[in-house]
Amino acid sequence: MRLASPSRLQLRRLCTGVALAASVAGLCTAAWVFTPPGAALLAPPEALGLTLADRHGVPLRSTRAAGGVRWRWVPIAEMDPVVGAAFIAAEDHRFLDHHGVAWSSVARAARDNLLAGRVVSGASTITMQLARLLRGHDRGLIGKLHQVAWAVRLEQHYSKNELLEQYLNRVPLGQGAVGVEAAARLYFGTSSARLGPGRAALLAGIARSPARNNPFSEPERAAERRRVILQSLEHAGYLSSSERSLAENEPVRAAMLPTAVFRAPHFTTRVLASLDSGVRMLRDAPGGAPIRTTLDYALQLDVERDVRQVVHSLTEQHVQQAAVVVLDNTSGDVLSWVGSPDFDAARGQVDMVTSRRQPGSALKPFLYALAFERGYGASSILDDIPRTWMTSTGPYRPRNYDRQFRGPVRARVALGSSLNLPAVQLADVLGASAFLGVLHRAGFASLTRTADHYGLGLALGNGEVTLLELANAFRSLANGGTHTPVRRLLGDSTRRAATRVVREDVAALTLDILTDADARLSGFGEAAVFDFPFPVAVKTGTSRHFTDNWAVGVTGGFTVAVWVGNFDGTPMSAVSGIAGAGPLLRRVVLATAQRRAPGLLPSPAQYGAMRARVCRTSGLAATAACDGVDEWRLAESPPLVPDDWHRDGAVVLPPRFAEWERAQVQRTLASATAHRAAQTRDVPLEVLSPRHGDVFVLPVGPARSVATVALRAVGSAAAQSLKWTVDGQPVATSRWLLTPGAHIVRVTTASGAQAESRIVVRDVEPASLP
Predict the structure, then answer these.
(1) Which residue, 89, 709, 619, 702, is CA-closest to 382?
(2) Which of 207, 295, 306, 311 is the most buried (most CB within 10 A)?
(3) Chain segment 493-503, per-residue pLDDT in tens
(4) For residues 32 and 531, what is the distance between their CA atoms, to the nearest angstrom?
């Protein structure tokens, strides 16, 4: 027997080893192919871009995904069915038949590449392209083998429909657009559900070469590629000849459409910051649908316009900025959010809705609400007289805005006229710590210092708060004294904890005072800017040196808060709440009332309060000797004591007012001559309210029944008996019920002097979305 040579033995062993290794590799490959790759592989990326929309679906802002790409994930069931057919016709017409690799196409590609001496065909199926998109393989031979292996594996575990959906949502389509949905919005300004054959074929043509087949830069090549794909669709039976011809004649070069809307920038920036992650975005907006916010963009446009116009009108008073926030009382929804008149890089990106500034007198209603809970009433007498408080930082001598003192004042007048001395008196009696506790319960989280730090000055707003906190705190008064957080996302069902700020009856009484025009007379005069055709509780605030100007208006349905000033803290030129924030508040309240019913504010009577007759001067139970006025008395109020200030036709004030009374007499005597001289001047009669040219818009809802305007006149003859007519019809009261149309309001004095104003009253129009 002949023995094998050593070389043959080694060769046999080598072949055996190679065969064994190949068998092991084959078994491992088979095991790998038949092992599911895991759900995470096909999960949509967490950092997808998204679109924020207003409550009606109007787009507000679009963001891009990681890397700056445009990306929207849409289920294939929500796409136009022709989309998948077009991509199959363009990229892989055997997609429904092969198992990941089209071997005949591979053989043909190999032949073509050998004949050309270079790569002219890749023979990549849709599944192989998807494998590259998922795994990021190289384009060389090793990368191609990886694609083949992964394509076979994917086909083993996923349906054709699932694979096609993944591909259509991941394929790059030029201009930074990833996926059919993003490309449809970029090139055509529509969704993938409304493309049609021509547009679907155009997108499918981009996939093979996004740069060369781009309809913006290469419209002729894009049109030719579309024609080829449409013919393939016709041959496959997806289109008729007429449908193919119609699609071929569609324009290719669409105008570049704005895909990154940027509306309500301060609000949307805050919303984006509050979203946790891309996972949260996808959960809130399945299928790439816009995330609905609470904003009403139609109202937002009105408010933005009002902000710009008012700031422009105050330019000479050194006013450059303003901000507004509007809240729905019941839900806490943010309806409008304007952080500045513009959003330029130099200054407009500061958001004054969330920036901290001193609110001045705007916090006083919460101090009085605390007092009402502690036993004070609206008729309680407070001291508006000069006084010095000794504090840890030295003597504190607050003064009123007008530098005047009024002696004894009822709490209603002190709050309505925003007098400083009575407020500091209350803070001293009740304690700054108790007042700070109320403010914290009302949501003023910006007040982070101790009560000792703020001291009595907290009553006059020496702590810094935000406009959003102020608006939501006043909203709590309209909600029966209960505070809840605001809401920015329409579908947000997060449980929001409610905090009791003050009792319901106290909240209603506080709002009743803030709606009382007579209570404002002492501090603000007629204040026609706050004369609304429906009930509105109003409070203003001005910080020291006219740095910040605030105004808040509360209706039964919504709350508006306004700030006017300058970002850099430079003072305005003597702009008070009436002259600065007041006109802007009026505009925004009326604009909001055109879209949302202002409703009626809660009445103290709903919570057991009763009317009682009290003396205007002493606040005690009225007698025949004093001028009486009706006042609310809460159910828990102590019995009224009969008035003892009025004796023998004179008013005898308590001893603590004696010094102030003597000074008041001297001032009265000193000004008597000047007053008599002024009386001799002949000032023409003029209609103060309604002003000539005023345009009123009737509110919606039950507030229409109380939509009235005050009738006021000024001038030398205005002290006489006045008779008012509207369109020639006499008006018996001091207010006229608004009715639609153009009207002539005329006032006539006993001596025959006349003045008139012409106004227009419009019925509310349905809100229209842009």
Answers:
(1) 619
(2) 295
(3) 777 789 999 99
(4) 78
Is 130:155 a contact under the CB 8 Å cutoff? Answer: no
Residue 676: is it exposed, middle or buried by C-beta count within 10 angstroms (0-12/13-18/19+)? exposed
Q: Tell me if 182 sits within 8 A of 190, measured CB to CB.
A: no
Q: Tell me the per-residue pLDDT of 562-618, one tens digit each, with 9 for 90 and over.
A: 999 888 888 887 676 667 788 999 999 999 999 999 999 999 999 999 999 999 999
Check whether 83 has a pLDDT greater than 80: yes
Specify the DSSP element, H or E, that contains 59. strand 59-62
Specify whether the CB–CB gap between 293 and 550 falls below 8 A: no
CA 175 to chain centre: 32
Instruction: Please state the separation of Cα 674 from the chain's center in Å.
Output: 52
Are the CB atoms for 389 and 460 separated by under 8 Å? no
Q: Which residues does residue 325 pair with via DSSP β-bridges, in sequence order?
A: 337, 561
Which element (helix H / strand E) includes 745? strand 741-749
Q: Is the peptide bond prior to 684 cis by the omega test (within 30 degrees of 0)?
A: no
Residue 76 near residue 171 (C-beta atoms within 8 A): no
Q: List Cα–Cα distances, 190 to 196, 238, 258, in angstroms.
A: 11, 22, 12
Cα–Cα dist 115/109, whole Å? 10
The count of other CB atoms within 10 Å of the CB of residue 472 is 23
pLDDT in tens, 28-65: 555 555 667 766 677 776 556 678 899 998 988 877 66
Taking Cα atoms as reference points, which of 514, 485, 468, 550 lies closest to residue 369? 514
β-bridge pairing 558-565 and 321-328: antiparallel
For residues 223 and 231, the answer to whether their CB atoms sit within 8 Å is no
Amino acid of residue 709: V
Distances (CA, A) of 195 to 82, 201, 204, 219, 247: 8, 9, 12, 18, 11
Q: Rounded to whole angstroms, what are the CA distances from 610 to 381, 519, 613?
A: 19, 19, 10
> Tokens 């007198």 correspond to what residue?
361
**No. of helices (H) and no. of strands (E), the chain:** 23, 29
**Integer CA distances (angstroms), 658 to 41, 121, 381, in order:** 86, 105, 15
Q: In this structure, are strands 334-338 and 321-328 parallel, antiparallel, or unpaired?
A: antiparallel
Q: Is the pLDDT of residue 2 over 90?
A: no
Q: How far apart are CA 543 and CA 112, in angstroms?
A: 81
Classify burial at 215, counting beta carbons within 10 Å of its beta carbon; exposed 0-12, middle 13-18, buried 19 or more.
buried
pLDDT above 60 for 111: no
Angle, CA 642 vertex, CA 639 and CA 646 arms, to 5°: 150
Q: Report the alpha-carbon distance of residue 459 to residue 427 in Å, rounded.
A: 6
- Whether 489 contacts 271, CB under 8 Å: yes
H or E segment at 565?
strand 558-565
Query: CA 87, 93, 94 angle in degrees (round to 5)?
Result: 130
Measured at the alpha carbon of residue 573, what is the angle toward residues 570 and 575, in degrees to the nearest 5? 105
Q: Which of 290, 287, 289 is nearest to 74 (CA)?
A: 287
List Cβ neighbours of 254 (8 Å cut-off, separation of 6 or more): 187, 188, 189, 215
- Tally of CB atoms within 10 A around 447: 20
The answer on pLDDT for 457 being more than 60 is yes
- What is residue 489's three-state secondary structure? strand
Look up tokens 């000193």; give the residue.
670
> Quick check: 223 and 252 in contact, CB under 8 A?
yes
Cβ neighbours around 370 below 10 Å, total: 22
Distance from C-alpha of 701 to C-alpha of 153, rounded to nearest angstrom:
64
CA-to-CA distance for 224 and 244, rounded, in angstroms? 13
**8 Å CB contact between 200 and 80:** yes
Tokens linked to 217: 């830069």
Q: Are strands 70-71 and 695-697 parallel, antiparallel or unpaired?
A: unpaired
pLDDT at 769: 34
Of 288, 85, 94, 95, residue with least CA distance to 195: 85
CB 45 within 8 Å of CB 71 = yes
